[in-house]
Amino acid sequence: STIQKQRQELQVLIAELKDRDQELNDMVAVHQRQLLAWEGDRQKVLTLAERCSLLNHELNKRNEIIKSLTKRLKFLESQQNDSKTTFENTQQKFKELSQKVTDATVHCQALEEKNQSLHCSVLDLSLKTGQLQAREQELLTMLKLKDEAILETTDYITEFTSKFKKLESALRAAKTEEFSLKKEKQDLKLRLKELILETNKLKGDLCEKVKENNKQQEEIIYLQQENGCLRNELALFVEKAKRKDQLLQLAKSKQARTDTELSILRQIYAKQQRDLQFLHVNLESSQELTQ
Fold first, then answer.
1. Which residues form a coiled coil (predicted)?
2. Tens of pLDDT along 78-118?
3. CA 266, 11, 286 angle in degrees (round to 5)?
4. C-alpha–C-alpha distance, residues 276 and 27, integer Å
């Protein structure tokens, strides 16, 4: 009866061991599935980490591009300010040159008027000289006809000769002044031509500066648009990175829960191993008693 009881107990223990073995097999299968899921999650996390590093690298590149574009924009703005300053200086020089041209024109007109008056004076002097020469001829004729009046008219002729010399010197002075005025007029004409050429050159430079300024403004507008697009792309990348960080945090929390469950399962597995060892010891002791 004792042996039958022990046999029944052994059968019950064997049935329990089979149940425990089945439970352990189920737990091992669940554990394997959890390990596979954990491995898949780990691969996903590694993939996400790699993509996150790539996105960070691309974000750094975009930041460098934005910095370079910002520097270029600042340089173009400073260049535009320099162009504006040069444009204002050119306008000021153009105004000064226009004033100089106006002054030179007024001076030329004054010199022309003076030259005209001197020419009229020369004509008057020439007319007077002709008249005096005719008068001299008449006087010579009178002298030839009237030898008696030579002594009386000697003083008059001497005085007239001195006046004639004075008129000749005045005529030479007027001619010299007329020559100097002509030369000055030619110099002023040359200077006026030079000023006109310089003015045209400054107008050409001004047009080129205006064209260059317009091109720079168009380039600045294009760069501002490109900068806005890059900022929008950067905001999208930042939003994607935030989402990836959120997913990574969720994956980390899931991994923590999985690790906790795995540690609990390991503890349960260790406890069942100890129970199984204890049952094996009991079974061996029972077999010894049975023997």
1. 3-34, 59-114, 157-205
2. 888 887 888 788 878 878 877 887 887 787 677 778 777 77
3. 80
4. 15
